[in-house]
Each structure stands twice: as structure tokens, then as C-alpha cells.
Amino acid sequence: MAWTGFNFQWMAGWQEGRDPAPVDLKALDFLAKHGFNFARLACDYRFWCRDFDYLHPVESAFPHIDGYIDACKQRNIHFSLNMHRVPGYCINRPDIEKHNLWLDVEAQDGLVFQWETFAKRYRGVSSEVLSFDLINEPPDIGQYGMTREIHEALIRRIVKAIRHIDPHRVIVIDGLEGGNVAMPELADLDLIHSTRGYQPMPVSHLGASWYSGWKGHQAEYPGGDWWGRYWNRETLHEYYAPWREIAAQGRTVHIGEFGCYNRTPNDVALRWLGDLISLWREYGWGWGLWNFGGPFGIIGHGRDGAVIEMIDGYEVDRELLELIKP
Fold it and tell me: Which pLDDT band, with edges at 50, 70 and 90, does 15 fall under?
């Protein structure tokens, strides 16, 4: 059965004096009741590192992760530990890092050490319960000095280090260019390849303050003019061709993130999401919505025109819930 569920941000966006959020048991109960089996945690490494000291983690942060894993295990939900901000890189505000992951050995050594630390800590946890998602959304090729060769060498090094400690750990790698570009050069390794469900961006990110690429484009679906193309189900099918080629080589492909910001008209959002989900079902791929609650979620997104229903103590977008359920 493919992993299908949601992203959570209990350890995202570290700030001085901020502790990790407690596990949301109510949300996990909702997932289990409605047939979902996947929770991806977007982590900021600064919760366990101070002043860019990558090699001496503050281990008092780790019991929070232990609790997240245990809560998911009790509900038969697979837990994906994702390093959303790693030493020397994050797709959001990489400029605040001291080092550059793609160019600086300090950051690379630090990231390898931290994954070794997790591999030792969770060596006894079944891969049915836990996977490691190594680096969230690497940048565009050439950006920050990243090349395919640098990225490949770093991934191979991390995988080797983890599997030296825990040979059977399930490992996930995100596509390049924000999760969009497949990596056939790594298909020889036994890894899960994680892509995204955000294209075309003027549909998924209309009105987003942190992303301006939607400006000058219409949030139409089918339709629009993004990358010089008219978008419909066939366009989406073509977009995933490189990922289908990875799957044809015997590797699992998973949609680690997808979703639609709340400024997109509801009818457009549902048509687009409906085509995405139908394709992924056809391919046999699972998916993780970004995220459970908030402007991309099924809870409290605030999109005009959505049908909201009280379900298990939440104000839920009923149509969206039914659309993404396994």
C-alpha cells in the first residue's frame, strides 16, 4: 500500500527559546480513522544544533522525535523524518546559514554526522515505521554552486554512512530544483525518489507572498500558459515522464509534498487536484499533502467556495478530504 497522508511542522522554523511542538494526537487519530498512513515531519536542524556546531547536537531535542515516532507507530502511520533545513542549506532563507552545503566541507560533514546520529538512535525501529528523507528540495542546478555531480556524491556519501549503521533503513531523496527534477543517476541505489505536486505554479501558489512567479499568469485549469504550455491532465502526465522512468527501473516514487494555496478559486483547485490524484493512483504512487491544517491543508484553509463540514472536531473541506483519501 502506498504511503498517503500529510506533512507536519512540529519541528520547523526554529527560533531562540522555542521548543518543538508536542505531537498532535488528535490529528494523527484523524489520519488513522480516515485511512491515511503517512506523516512527514519537516525538521529544522537548529532545534538540536546551536551556533552552527553540527557535531555536538543538543540531544534533549531528540525525545520529541521519539514521541512523534511512537505516536505514529501506535496508529500504523509511517513516519518520515525529513531534514527540511540542513547544515548549509534550506530552500527558504538559505542566506542565514553560516556555510554552503554544496561547497563547504564543514556543512557536508555536519549533515553526514547528523544522519549517522539518527541512524544509531533509531537502528532498532522498523523501516515499516520510519524512513529518512535526507535533504528537502535541493536548489536549481547551478544555484549556490550545486551541480548534479556534487549532489550525487553527497547523497551517496550519506546513504553509505546510514547503511553502514542501519543496512535496512528506508531512505528518501527529494528531486532537484525544488523537488521537480528526477535523478536517474541515483536509480542504482535502493532509494525512494520524492517529487512534488505543485505544477503549474500559478495554480498551486496564486497569491503567495513568498513566491512571485504566479504574477502575470492566470490561475486556470485546464488552461493557462505556464512554461509556454497549456496545462491539462495530459500535460501533467508528460510532466511526470522522468519520474515514471525512474519507477520503471524498479524504484518507488512518492509525492512528498503537494497542495493548493487558498487564493486559487475552489473549482480550479479541485479540478487540478483531481487530475493529479487520478494520475498518481494510476501510477501507484502515494502522496503527502502540504499540510494538514492551514492555507494548503484540509483544515481551516479559508478558500472561498469550499464546502466545510464539521468532522471529528475539525472544520474540514469535505470535497478535498474525499479527493485525497486513499
Answer: confident
The DSSP-derived string for 36-48 is --EEEEEEEGGGT
Compute the Cα dihedral for 264, 267, 272, 274 and give only its sign: positive
Predicted confidence (pLDDT) at residue 16 exceeds the cutoff of 90: no
The pTM of the full predicted model, rounded to 2 decimals, is 0.96
| Phi, psi for residue 40 in degrees, rounded to 5 | -105, 125
The residue assigned the cell 505516536 is: 71
C-alpha closest to that of 251 among 194, 326, 177, 178: 194
- In the chain, the largest separation of any two C-alpha atoms, in whole Å, equals 52
The dihedral sign for the CA sequence 50, 55, 59, 61? positive
Please determine, for residue 232, whether its predicted confidence score (pLDDT) is greater than 80: yes
Average pLDDT over residues 150-177: 98
Question: Cell triple for residue 91?
Answer: 530552500
Shortest CA distance to 111 belongs to which of 159, 168, 54, 151?
Answer: 54
d(CA 123, CA 144): 33
How much is the average pLDDT of 236-252? 98
Amino acid sitting at position 206: L
Place of cell 531535542: 61
Residue type, 141: I
The kind and range of the H/E element at 164 are: helix 148-165
Tell me if 119 sits within 8 A of 161, measured CB to CB: yes
Which of these, 63, 89, 68, 77, lies nearest to 3 by C-alpha position?
A: 77
What's 4-324's CATH class? alpha beta
Q: What rounded mean pLDDT belongs to the chain?
A: 96
- State whether the Cα torsion 178-239-243-151 is positive or negative: negative
Pairing of strands 229-231, 223-226: antiparallel
pLDDT at position 17, please? 75
Neighbours of 57 (CB within 10 A): 19
